[in-house]
């Protein structure tokens, strides 16, 4: 295990924020992960785990040990038409989607082109184009710091919901995901309920998982800025979920506000619409700004600090709250 000092974290976060890690280590085995945990415990260092760095904001330098989870490996168990795939946490998510399609294992096609690692996928129950990780997840394996051992968390115990899970709550920072197990199918069952996906499918063809994946990848490439050129973390704000009564009042005034029904009568609102209507789409505040095509994507145009990014986010939250009475919640984890 090679623990480095004062490591530049800019290449490790897709927002391109300048920050340094006091200590930094890449772990590619369970033994190295345990060693890194012991090292940080013995020196009373704070631990920060990162995968692809596509869903975090570094407010400043990290006083502690940054542990880059880089465990690799994919295994498969066949049971009839089902394929149970166990994927190590450090595998790249998008590469996994492409690999599964090439093997004829279906179920991940709508989740193509999402940056980051497989291990982080359960943390916010990644979702796109009508599919969430919850649709295919069987269980999550990880190192429980409190128990000092590996353990398995079943799907029901993961408490997955919209951009949320037990790993953001009770198990935050104490459960390090080492692998996830997914249930995929050799017979495709396409999920085409998402209107923008249906509309973008090529005309006069019966869609296959490969066509769905190509279509989603194309829409995403057209819609979302490439973080390698315009550093970002995807959606910066969650779509707010409000009560039926709140929604009734808001929609009476703004009937054009895009919204979706949720369980228990609650209503999810389009954060992008709220930000756009508050006048922020395409606007810049110094080195950071809101993308001109995507009101929900903050772009770090000139290697600004995490503080500058968060100042822009606060200004947007204040405007949206003043205009609509809605509190926007930041999606990425802030360190
Ligand atoms: C252009 C772009 C588009 C995106 N589109 C989508 C989308 O469509 N849908 C969606 O849901 N998300 C989307 N995202 C967000 C992001 O890609 C996902 O949340 C992804 O799962 C983050 O993976 P990561 O490895 O980069 O996580 P990181 O940013 O490295 O980490 C995120 C959080 O997870 C924790 N973590 C990471 N790995 C582990 C581990 N092994 N064990 C325990 N904790 C861990 C970290 O400590 C941190 O708190 C997008 C991001 C970008 C930049």
From TrEMBL:
GO MF terms, alphabetically ordered: UDP-N-acetylmuramate dehydrogenase activity
Pathway: Cell wall biogenesis; peptidoglycan biosynthesis
Enzyme class, spelled out: oxidoreductase
Gene3D superfamilies: 3.30.465.10, UDP-N-acetylenolpyruvoylglucosamine reductase, C-terminal domain, Uridine Diphospho-n-acetylenolpyruvylglucosamine Reductase, domain 2
UniProt keyword rRNA-binding present: no
Keywords: Cell cycle, Cell division, Cell shape, Cell wall biogenesis/degradation, Cytoplasm, FAD, Flavoprotein, NADP, Oxidoreductase, Peptidoglycan synthesis
Main localization, broad class: cytoplasm
UniProt cofactor(s): FAD
Catalytic site: 163, 235, 331
HAMAP family to which the protein is assigned, alphabetical: MurB (MF_00037)
Protein name: UDP-N-acetylenolpyruvoylglucosamine reductase
């Amino acid at each position: 295990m090679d623990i480095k000092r004062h490591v530049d974290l800019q290449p490790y976060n897709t927002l391109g924020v300048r920050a340094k890690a006091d200590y930094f280590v890449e772990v590619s085995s369970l033994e190295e992960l345990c060693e890194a945990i012991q090292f940080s415990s013995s020196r009373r260092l704070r631990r920060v785990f990162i995968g692809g760095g596509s869903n975090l904001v570094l407010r400043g330098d990290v006083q502690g040990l940054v542990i880059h989870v880089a465990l690799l490996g994919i295994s498969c168990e066949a049971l009839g038409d089902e394929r149970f795939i166990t994927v190590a946490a450090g595998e790249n998510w998008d590469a996994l989607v492409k690999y599964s399609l090439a093997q004829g294992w279906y179920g991940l096609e709508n989740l193509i082109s999402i940056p980051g690692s497989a291990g982080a996928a359960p943390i916010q129950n990644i979702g796109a184009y009508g599919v969430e990780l919850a649709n295919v997840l069987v269980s999550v394996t990880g190192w429980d710091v409190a128990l000092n051992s590996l353990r398995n968390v079943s799907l029901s115990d993961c408490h997955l919901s919209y951009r949320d899970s037990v790993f953001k709550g009770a198990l935050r920072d104490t459960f390090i995901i080492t692998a996830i197990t997914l249930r995929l199918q050799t017979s495709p069952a396409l999920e085409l309920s998402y209107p923008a996906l249906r509309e973008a499918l090529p005309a006069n063809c019966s869609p296959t998982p490969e066509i769905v994946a190509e279509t989603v990848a194309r829409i995403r490439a057209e819609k979302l800025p490439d973080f390698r050129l315009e550093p970002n973390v995807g959606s910066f704000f969650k779509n707010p979920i409000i009560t039926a009564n709140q929604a009734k009042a808001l929609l009476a005034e703004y009937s054009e506000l895009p919204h979706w029904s949720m369980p228990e009568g609650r209503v999810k609102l389009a954060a992008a619409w709220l930000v756009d209507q508050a006048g922020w789409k395409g606007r810049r505040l110094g080195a950071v700004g809101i993308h001109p095509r995507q009101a929900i994507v903050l772009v770090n145009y000139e290697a600004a600090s995490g503080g500058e990014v968060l100042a822009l986010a606060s200004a947007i939250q204040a405007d949206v709250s003043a205009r609509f009475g809605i509190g926007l919640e930041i999606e990425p984890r802030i360190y």
